[in-house]
Amino acid sequence: MTDAASRSGAIDAAELRRRTQELLAAHPVAGTDRVDFLKARFDAGLAWVHYPQGLGGLGAPRSLQAVVDAELEAAGAPDNDPRRIGIGLGMAAPTILGYGTEEQKSRFLRPLWVGEEVWCQLFSEPGAGSDLAALGTRAVRDGEDWVVNGQKVWTSSAHLARWAILIARTDPDAPKHRGITYFVCDMTDPGVEVRPLRQITGEAEFNEVFLTDVRIPDAHRLGEVGDGWRVAQTTLMNERVSIGGMRIPREGGMIGPVSRTWRERPDLRTHDLHQRLLTLWVEAEVARLTGERLRQQLVAGQPGPEGSGMKLAFARLNQEISGLEVELLGEEGLLYEDWTMRRPELVDFTGRDAGYRYLRSKGNSIEGGTSEVLLNIVAERVLGLPSEPRTDKDVAWKDLAR
Q1: What is the pLDDT of residues 110-155, one digit of tens each?
Q2: d(CA 240, CA 219)
């Protein structure tokens, strides 16, 4: 540590570089198994440095994570394949950290970060639509267990997941926001059935999940009984930041492929397409820089409703950019490489063809909160506009019209 850091007990950049070099010396990249290296990194507190000691962190400022990442990248160290385990990293982990018991944190966070256990999210339901608080999946207490019955939908990675974050109704006599409890569900337990949900792309990246008399121990409850909606807000705010606030380079994301096509295929250019491309390029760059500012704000605390605005911009831009790309390519844009039914491990927007990007981006305004709901959140929580009238706010869930 520097003298100042040593006196205050704080972790500074120099200290993190020293610890990272110690990790690399003790576990040489060339001779260490990938998973073993990731476990050692977690145990050294270099996984997410702002987490507490013993849970993959050192209690350091979140902004210093970049110091560790740069050192490891320069050394060619393996990462934890964050795109494959994004739900665990971006949604489950911060919720467990915020509301889990010490036993839950110790059990779940290490294999989650290392990637040994994939997570999924059992929130949305076919009968609730965009009104997540109207969910009807029931959890009934039976001794030390909860017996869960219901159906969830749009569940990414359910076919790969070992664990799920789940919200269920535990008190139908309470208003819809106050009768919900948050659980961790073992996806390998009896009664959990995962069915592929084929999308417009031809693939089944999403799933339906049916829960029939699934027994979840009370030890796998996050937060207090009936307080699940508050716990879920942590998940949802982090989800929207992880979707809309991803770190990308200039001309990264969807604007990259269409920009390359424009440069490489002058025969496709028209004045109108040029003006539209310039407008979308500027908007994509503004969104990228806004996302960077949002990530810097996160260093100081928890994500707020600003993530909803970023997720809104992400969905709109993806759909407009992919539409422009298809139009630019003309007849070629109507081609689609493969309609084979697959169950992929991740979404690859930039590594596929224009037809895939166009079709897949249609889901961006639904997943992670519909654009209509997010517009309400931005209006009420960011702009301070009056709330919409909600006649069902104080009505018991069981008495709601369905």
Answers
A1: 999 999 999 999 999 998 878 899 999 999 999 999 999 999 999 9
A2: 28
pTM, two decimals, is 0.88
Strands 163-169 and 119-122: parallel
State the residue for tokens 């915020």: 98
Q: Which three-class secondary structure string do you get for 16-77?
A: HHHHHHHHHHHCCHHHCCHHHHHHHHHHCCCCCCCCCECCCECCCCHHHHHHHHHHHHHCCC
Q: For this structure, is 239 an active site residue?
A: yes
Cα 139 to Cα 166, 179, 233: the distances in Å are 10, 10, 19
**Which residue in 125, 239, 306, 325 is the catalytic one?**
239
Beta-carbon contacts of 251 under 8 Å, excluding residues fewer than 6 positions away, are 259, 281, 284
Q: What is the rounded CA–CA span in Å between residue 102 and residue 134? A: 31
Give the Cα separation of 97 and 104 in Å (integer). Answer: 9
**Among 358, 351, 354, residue whose Cα is nearest residue 261:** 354
| Distance from C-alpha of 315 to C-alpha of 349, rounded to nearest angstrom | 13
64 vs 86: CA distance, rounded Å: 21
Q: What is the largest CA-CA distance in the chain?
A: 71
| Residue 343 scores a pLDDT above 60 | yes
DSSP single-letter state for residue 330: G
* Alpha carbon distance 356, 370 (integer Å): 21
How many C-alpha atoms does 114 have within 13 Å on its Cβ side?
Answer: 22
Please give the structure tokens belonging to residue 33: 């198994």
SS3 188: coil
261-284 tens-digit pLDDT = 999 999 999 999 999 999 999 999
Phi-psi region of 309 (alpha: psi -120 to 50; beta: other; left: phi over 0): alpha
Collapsed DSSP state (helix, strand, coil) of residue 222: strand
Q: Which of 235, 306, 303 is nearest to 91 (CA)?
A: 235
